[in-house]
Every structure is written in C-alpha cells, then in structure tokens.
Write a structure and sequence with these properties.
Elements lengths: L2 H9 L1 H7 L20 E7 L4 E6 L14 E7 L3 H10 L4 H8 L6 E5 L2 E12 L4 E11 L3 E6 L8 H7 L5 H4 L2 H36 L3 H33 L7 H67 L14 H22 L4
Parallel strand pairs: 3-7
Antiparallel strand pairs: 1-2, 1-3, 4-5, 5-6, 6-7
C-alpha cells in the first residue's frame, strides 16, 4: 500500500473502520484435512478358490498382507496422517507419494517409485438436493500382490458393485492378479463419471425447457450455477486422460501385458467423457444465448405494444390539441355536433390505423 494512504488513516482513524481496508496482506494458509477419529480398514484377500473379508481398526493388523500369496485389496477409509505414514513405511511407499495422498486439491496424476505404481484422481458424486457435483479424492497404490486404496469419506464410494463381484466364484476379477484389481478400481471411478454426467444432462434439459417457457432472472442464476458445475466436472475429468495414458506408456512390471488392453478401454471411455463434457459446456453457452434471445424477444414484444398504443393515441392527441387552441375562428367550434364529430374522428382514425397495421403484419 502506498505511504500516502497510511497518512490519511492517521489523520482520520474512523476512515479505517468505515472502509474496513486491510493494511497488511496475510500469508495464504494451506488447506488442512480434518482427520477422523479413527481409520477403518477393510481387507479383501482372495484368489480364484476363495476370499476372506476382514475389518480392522488397528493399522498393524493389515501389515501381514504385504507378503500374502493371494491378492489383497486394502481399503483405508479415513485418512489420518500417522496411520497413512505407518502404512506407507511398511509397504515401501515413497514419502513423495505419502505427501500426495495426504494433500488436498491434487490434480489427477500417476507415478511409479521404488516398484510401487501410484495414481490419484477424483471420485464424483451428484447431489440431487443441491444439483451439485461433489468430489472425493482417492489414491490407489499398486504393489506386487496388493492394492491399497485411500479414501477421504468412509460413508460412500463407487466400489460396491466391485465388492459384490469379489464374492462371486470364478469371476474374471478373482482369476486375475492385483493389476486387474487396480484396473477395475479405476474403471469403476471412470464409469461413474458417466452416471454423474447423465444426471447433469437431465438438469440441463429441464433448464432448457424452463428457459423456453418462462425465462426469468432465476433461469439466469440456474445457468450460472450449472456452468460452475461444468467447470468442476471439467477439472476432474480432463486430467484422467493423462493419468491413463501415463499408465499405458509406463514400462512397469506390475501390469501384465494381457491387462494393458483393459487400460486402453478406460482410455477410450475417458475420451468419450471429455467429449461429453465439452458438449455439455457448449450446451450451457447455447442456453445462455437462448436466455438472452428470449429476454430480448420479450422486450421487443413489450416495445411493440407500447409503440402501437402510442401511434393509436396520436390522432386523439392531435385533434384534442387543435381544438384546444385559443382561437375564436375554429371550424365546428360552435356547432352542436362538433364534439361528437371530433370524438368520432378520434375513434375512427385509430381503427383505420389498426387495420393498416394488421395488413402489414406488424402485430
């Protein structure tokens, strides 16, 4: 702030209180995650013959599954810094990956460090009550025979169909390794993007009908809110393309060659999701233009009615003005029928004008 502004506050201290101006810029504070009371861990240890499902609240209880001969899915609900660090240290997860897991607002990314394949992306949910897209950051770690997923919200996720499939014998999921489970988790998240976008599409269609029938200021507010949701959707979906592409280009030994084709399928899906987001974005721009067009059309109709009324009143105004002049020699001034003749002209001329306007299609 310039020094002269400080002198103005010294001369008039009330100005500082009245304007509420800040004299010093505060340093930005990094967002912090509110840690849950405890971490809940679900372990799905399985092979083609059987599956074992366990729930545990003590982090060390999941450590033996690092060297399990079967495939282990360790799902961590609720992120506590100490618990995540303990899991990371035991399973050989690098500190940079642990830092990404605990950070907020991360962009979708993938990385491979020390024989561990890591990816981070957002799970999307649609709030029907607020018509809003909600995000949950999830981190997935792939090891030799294990997959660890870190979730912020223990109350919801999109993996319930996957859990049901794990309980069915001789499914493709049970017959393959940890890399196929890793693919399945990412695939479930990406498939849920289409569910969210479908609900957004329904809201856009409802908004379009509302704008066509009854455009008002509420419609404009809804358009602005929906455009914000599209921005959130775009920021969450677009980076996943680079994430999947990074997995396809990696030379990691953790993903078998036969599983590569499944990641190509995810890549195709995320391309479709990106195209759909762009289409919805264009639709929102078109809805905004449609709203402005309808408002202008409505204004033009109002102005047309006002212009017609003004034109119809013009003859009466002219006739009334002529006979209201202060002259003694005015035709029909002393005629007993003069008033009725002038009133008749005032009515007859607008009727003729209405007929002419109708023929020309002006209204």
């Amino acid at each position: 702030m310039a020094p002269q502004k400080y002198f103005s506050y010294l001369l008039n201290p009330l100005e500082l209180l009245r304007t509420k101006k800040v004299l010093q810029v505060n340093q930005p504070v990094a967002a912090e995650r509110k840690e849950p009371d405890q971490t809940v861990i679900f372990v799905y240890d399985y092979n083609a013959a059987g599956i074992s499902v366990k729930q545990m609240t003590q982090v060390p209880d999941c450590f033996p599954y690092m060297n399990s001969p079967q495939v282990s899915w360790i799902n961590v609900d609720g992120l506590r810094k100490t618990d995540v660090e303990n899991i990371g240290n035991h399973f050989g997860i690098h500190n940079l990956i642990i830092e990404d897991i605990l950070s907020l607002g991360q962009r979708a990314k993938t990385d491979e460090i020390n024989g561990i394949l890591f990816c981070l992306l957002n799970m999307l949910y649609f709030n029907e009550k607020d018509s809003a897209v909600e995000l949950e950051q999830i981190s997935i770690v792939l090891g030799k025979n294990f997959v660890i997923s870190f979730q912020e919200d223990p109350e919801r996720d999109v993996f319930n169909p996957l859990r049901e499939r794990l309980k069915i014998n001789n499914t493709k999921l049970r017959q393959n390794g940890a890399d196929f489970l890793f693919y399945s988790l990412i695939d479930m998240i990406v498939d849920n993007y289409f569910v969210v976008m479908e609900k957004l599409g329904e809201k856009i269609e409802e908004l379009e009908e509302d704008i066509v029938r009854h455009p008002n200021t509420k419609s404009l507010a809804k358009i602005n809110l929906m455009r914000k949701e599209m921005i959130v959707l775009k920021r969450s979906v677009a980076p996943v393309r680079e994430l999947v592409n990074g997995i396809l280009r990696s030379d990691t030994e953790l993903i078998e060659e036969r599983t590569q084709k499944y990641f190509k399928d995810i890549y195709d899906h995320i391309l479709q999701a990106n195209d759909l987001v762009e289409n919805y974005r264009d639709m929102m721009m078109n809805l905004h233009d449609l709203y402005l067009s309808n408002v202008n059309l409505k204004m033009n109709e109002v102005m047309k009615v006002m212009a017609v009324v003004t034109c119809l009143l013009a003859p009466a105004t002219v006739i009334g003005g002529i006979f209201g002049m202060n002259f003694e020699a005015i035709p029909l001034l002393h005629n007993r029928w003069g008033f009725f003749i002038s009133v008749g002209l005032m009515l007859f001329i607008p009727l003729v004008m209405l007929r002419i306007f109708r023929r020309r299609g002006w209204f």
